[in-house]
Write the structure tokens for this entry.
Amino acid sequence: MELYEEKRIKPEQLKKRLGKPITLYERSETSLGECTLALVRAGREKYLVATGSGPVFDELEGTTEGSCKICPTNHANRLVLNSYLPYTKPQSNANKRTSIGLGDRLGEATCGHIRALQGTSVFPIFAQQSVRELTLTGRTFEDVIDKAAYAVFQEGYTGGYGADGDHLKKEADIEKALEAGVTMITLDSSDVIDNTVFTLGTHEVEAKYEQLDATLCKSYEDRYRDQVFTVSDQSYTLDAEHLKRDILIYHRALDFIQAIYEKYIAGSAVSLDFEVSIDETDTPTDAKSHLFIALELKRRKVVVSTLAPRFIGEFQKGIDYRGDLALFEQDLLAHTAIAKQFGYRLSVHSGSDKFSIFPILQKTIKGSFHIKTAGTNWLEAMRLVALKDPDLYRRMHRHALSRFADARAFYHVTTDISAIEALDATQDAELVHYLEDDNARQLLHITYGFLLEDTDATGRKLFKDEFFSLLAIEEQLYADLLAKHIGKHLHLLGFAS
Ligand SMILES: [Zn+2]
């Protein structure tokens, strides 16, 4: 009885020590022999609380009073948590479960994502950020994984999750991501893909090809020229012209992918998922080019978990798919067959809100793919602002309009901001309807970096403090909105929840 008392979390005592009302996350309460751990919130901050004694108690940094230690939810303590509770540590998707990337730019979305996933077997990538996202939000890979790990602990979620260094292009970034503990590298080779070749005519391709190293050309031609390959019931002939184009477009990218794979992935002490993304091109990846890349990766002994081609149609941020659904289905079928034959899964980028293609994905890929979402989680936070703080929403919306032209430079979107209903003509109760309007969605989607990081003349962040305070107060509502919205994605993808 005495020991039990010693280990019990005492909310009254915590409230007194932290000087504010606290919320104890009951699902986080975990007994580790002589020590009980739990997560609490006091105002905007979350703390790890340890009561009792023993090695985990000693290893955590924090302030001790009697048998209770209050610990900051920082990086060092996250590592301690990881070593005692392995489910809080990101891991690779070793069983090749269907997976979903849930990029959380704010570090506040994981609890809602966990609820959305309930009752499904989908493997989540709770931590997924690109370098661009980190720069625009002033975050680091460590911070992103820390937030996901503490959320997993908060919810008592033991199903495993991954961490993706998304769209990485440089070795230095890959090293940083791996050091922080990512379990997946998405290699973006767009800097070494020659996009200009897509628009060249036959003679121009010929002229450009002549300039390549002759030995290199011969080795490719010996392997593939006019060869016929059968994938599923489809046969592909790698005819000379197509092959020359593919060599010109992808040969440097293939060397780059191989070099990165050999240096960082193949000999890694921890299991990693390796994704190759070739989706950042203006032209869709045709099946023959995908086949050429798959053949080369195999020859070079590069083992990929997932590959993201650029699919037919438009995958704009934050809105539904635009394009011919029948053509998409055909395209997807061809890519799926190639991926299957070569032993990897397809990855669909910019997957947020692409509701009209989800049933096709379900039917065609049959449960083994990766899909990435990110900005939609930020938009759900903006929905929360529209619902709960009309004044803040109006100021943010107005600022987004003023920054639209700057943001647009980074994205391919067809947003028509003149078509967005004027703020003055919109009642407070109707502000949330902006989140149903494609133009307004894209406006808010692409300006997130400015909305979070822009400052006034004195250097104070315009909205960041107010915004995060609201998210802290409305934590449950944000989780509910995400559970519903990501739940809709999973449902249409064929996962009951
Ligand atoms: Zn992408």
About this structure: The longest strand covers residues 22-32. DSSP finds 20 helices and 16 strands in the chain. The chain has a mean pLDDT of 95. The pocket of zinc ion is lined by residues 167, 277, 279-280, 308, 349 (CB under 6 Å).
